[in-house]
Design a protein that fits this description.
globular, 18 strands, 15% helix, six-stranded mixed beta sheet, 266 residues, five-stranded antiparallel beta sheet, 2 helices
Amino acid sequence: MKLLKYAAVVISLFAFTSCESDLEKTIYDESKVKPAVLSGLEDVYILDKTKGSENALLLKWTKPDMGYQASATSLLEMDLKEKNFNNPVILTASIEETAYSATVSDFNKKIMTLFKNHGVEYTEGETVELSFRIGSYISTVIDTVFSEVYTTTVTPYAGEAVYPMISVRGDYCNWSFNNSQFVYSVNSDDNYAAMIYFDGKAQNGWKFCKEEDWNSGNWGSNGESTIPDEALEVTLISGGNDIKAYSKKSYWVEFNSSTGLLQMSQ
């Protein structure tokens, strides 16, 4: 009997040590993190409107090392250099993909969108400095890890169509009109979509707002019902309450301003 008890203690100690060892392996250590490394950005781009369908931008990046085995989602962000990523355009977000390409026309449209987001008037022939970076994250409880900032000088062209847009305002941007991100209607209709980076704060509250004031039209949750945390589809109402759901850091957001249908995915 004593031998059996002794064996049980040894097995328990071994199991505890193994579990503790496994926990140690998965403890997040910021000092061991290696951010993604971006490559392929040229020093200068001159965009020619007569070559809109040609490829202009091809960026690649290494997967980040988060210090242990984990699948990280990486966001490719672009912003005007002087704005310091306070309202970037998210070009792509993915766990598996490590490359992004854009045609001359698409690249130019993204730049025009940046100008519109920041209220900047562009004059034909002017050059602009752009910044790019990769943000990587594995959960909402760990801060996003950002790569170095990479810059380039671009001469875009005016006259490119700018998509209609609706702002996404909420706690993630301190409810600021200047720092909110946007969903866009590529067909200039009632359907809007974009990747939105909430930084894990969507559950603190957010809404759609048509203009830079709350009186021009906004959409939120139906006050009589609660949106499930990760509902894939839900119908919003005009002038509704704050949407307090969705706990992950980024989502592909689709919204129909006529029906109020909101679709969320990753």
